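Shipment paperwork, digital attachment
Item: protein structure file
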Amino acid sequence: MATPAKKTLIMNILEILRRYSDEDHRLSQKDIVDILKSEYDMTIERKSVRRNILSLMECGYEIEYSESIRMVRNRATGEMEESYIWSDFYLVRDFTDSELRLLIDGLLFSKHIPYSQCKELVTKLESLSNIYFRSRVAHIRTMPDTMPPNKQLFYTIEILDEAISHQKQVAFHYTSFGLDKKQHARLNADGSAREYVVNPYQIAATNGRYYLICNTEPHDNVSHYRLDRITDIRLMDTKSKPAKTIVGLEHGINLPKHMAEHIYMFSGESDTVTFRMEKHLINDVMDWFGSDVVFSDEDADCVIARVHVNLQAMKLWAIQYSPYVRVLSPLSLVEQVKEALHKALENY
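Attachment content:
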């Protein structure tokens, strides 16, 4: 059995490879010996480095190295013989720096994770790389805390994950911001906090936020709730309704299609909408509605677009892009957009 000192040595060598090595920063045996001496107060011979690295590789750690041959004199025979020299060691990581950067950016751009928890997660992601990576992303520590946090968010995700996996209902309070800039539970007519009982089916991320796709009792249609506005969630013993019994989910959840139809995650009816738009909006339309949008009747400046989308969301989108878009059908949506625009003009 290895002595505690030997166990400590192999773990220290692994930590050195984690902190100081990558494909662009390779370590020789002498480098590792020097770091062990300066940072861990351990004095070892170079051959111990190779022996411990071999043990790490046998344990499944992917460590790359280069091998060269040199002629040395055999002390016993005095004859020259080949000796294999290992050097340029580095630890191959599960995540590349660019992948970690992408994950960190996703945290920074999110609008629902409290600052303290976001910072903690970023620090954990940084630890998966080395000192060189951390020095390049030091600016993340100045992230602004722009929104009041919901510290229950990660607990909410855990409960929903369990509920979806085991097909159980959940109950929770749903909040809205007041003029005091704090979240307050929505209330019943008698002033008590309203409890929502829902059948959860899927968690989706869009527009920088998490949403729950579900059905709210006792209704039979699809509902969406922002996870950062859910509080006091609890797992129930009752089984959730099968998704196929919910209007709009009869064939299950096609998440890309569902997200393209519900661009603002509104509930309600979806329908095919036709609109005329200026062609410089093509990138925006593709970003919002995805590749299922159909274009036709192109002229020099405009094109007709057709997309299947939630009508409430489309109304808001058409108002947002009203200088460049004209809804053509259905006529009920045309009238709703006109009414909203007239009302907006009255405010000015």
